[in-house]
Amino acid sequence: MERDKTLLQAQHISMAIDGRQILLDINLQINEKQIVTLIGPNGAGKTTLVKVVLGLMKPSAGTVTLRKNLRIGYMPQRLHVDNSMPISVKKFLQLAVHAKPELIEKVLDEVKALHLLHSQIHSLSGGELQRVLLARSLIQDPELLVLDEPVQGVDISGQAELYALIASIRDSHQCGILMISHDLHLVMSATDEVICLNQHVCCHGHPEQVSNDPAYLELFGKKQAAALAVYAHNHNHSHALDGEVVNGEMLNGDHSGHKHG
Q1: What's the whole-number mean pLDDT along residues 176-193?
Q2: Domain at 1-71+180-261: CATH code
């Protein structure tokens, strides 16, 4: 019998807070080695849905089922750093997960941020901080990685690099990924399935399919949606964390050929 590849299944999730409907009858499934991206406008309920599937919030209705003993890595949308309390990247990661130094160095190297090991957290750029947070989410070798707007505060070139890195992490760790993003055009080559959310599921499917769906076009506007649909960030160079071009390697993170259930 073939092993069940389902990591997470949420069925008929609804959430109301103070009489206001946040989520309505949401179904979501994530399988091994599958990247699922939630998109939608501000207030669509994306972060609330993530908190529900992580068990941080109890839904008004519906159920969430996780694979037994599922290891989950979580990268929050923001990290508030107190500048009056100096702390190095190494110490920050040790405090967060009580990890051994060699493991900390391994995950920082994986996200191309090992050179930041002794840097102060408050001195990091947006792209550098996001890579450190991504490294922290990888320390437990997760089977499911949950990323809440992982490119928050990163410039456009850095965003493309981070999405390509996330796609490569899926391949190297063989994990499933649930990701929130505002930018369909940047995640199109680094995701298998897109769910367009606006309290309810407006549409879902392969990125190209969603970008042409009438519900998506209505939600984001035809002009913007058309621009997103044709955008591709396939280029023959890489950027440093500050966005500078550093070499001529091909980095496209293209996983558009992946199939999913």
Answers
A1: 85
A2: 3.40.50.300
